[in-house]
Amino acid sequence: MNIAILSRGESLYSTQSLIKAGEARNHTMEVLNPLYFNLAVEDGKAVLYYHDEVIDDLNAVIPRIGASNTFQGTSLVRHFEAAGVASTVSSEGIFNSRDKWTCFQLLVKAQIPVPNTVLGGYYDAEVVLQKFKDKPVIIKILEGTHGQGVILSESNQNALATVETLQASNVNFILQEYIAESKGADIRAIVVDGVVIAAMRRQCKAGDFRSNLHRGGTSEVLQLSYEEEKVALKAAKILNLSVCGVDILQSARGPLVLEVNSTPGLEGIETTTGKNISKSIIGYLERTKR
Q1: What CATH topology corresponds to 96-113+181-282?
Q2: What is the pLDDT of residues 17-61, one digit of tens each?
Q3: pTM of the predicted model over 0.85
Q4: CA 20 to 30 Å from 104, out of 8, 175, 257, 260?
Q5: Options 3.40.50.1370, 3.40.50.1220, 3.30.70.360, 3.40.50.20; which CATH number does 2-90 get?
Q6: How far is CA 193 from CA 40, 45, 84, 157, 242, in A?
Q7: Pair 229, 191: CB distance under 8 Å
């Protein structure tokens, strides 16, 4: 197959891992920058130009769409879908998972457990914060990634200034309960084609509460419980994501889905678990195109 990785970072670990996995299976791999595409509808057909060249020889794409490029990237994947090109993740899945509030709405509709969460951008700040009864609260910008735009406030008083600043800046955000018993750790489960193929526990570094590995967190291999695996698979299915990372908190009331990532980084999970995630992704595309 001719497979394109839609990525702005050709040298990134994830991109290179996917290239090696595809070439090992005798596929033709290339990296195309999502920002260099022009989309058109001509004679009733979806047409894609890369710079000024028509792209019509691809069998499949692997989107690696960054948070700053959600709208254009989602539109690009939707155009490939209209042209009959297979994709590891759907345009719908990218869009719905990228906006944290939309993601939670869909998860709750499907009765998937999540932390108590309030949409915070449109209401009286003091009224919203009262819902957390002066307990620690997490403030998250809706489209932040990799731990960016995430703030822990120890009390309502501390949170008020941040909330009012975000509201004044017209920034959309959510407020979320802090799950103290997780002790700064979460679970990252990688789902490919309806199967959890790898999982790890991530632990934040001392003095932080975010468990992202590139922020100094540590990781270890983890065998998911039945309930943890169940919620991971259900979350991926509800969001229409054949390939994704599902982040889960271990709480006193059971596993809670914290986030679903349509473009999970591969370096941490492959290094920690020794699993070749990229090979599984290529295998999924091979099954899709049979």
Answers
A1: D-amino Acid Aminotransferase; Chain A, domain 1 (3.30.470)
A2: 999 999 999 999 999 999 999 999 999 999 999 999 999 999 999
A3: yes
A4: 8
A5: 3.40.50.20
A6: 31, 29, 19, 45, 5
A7: no
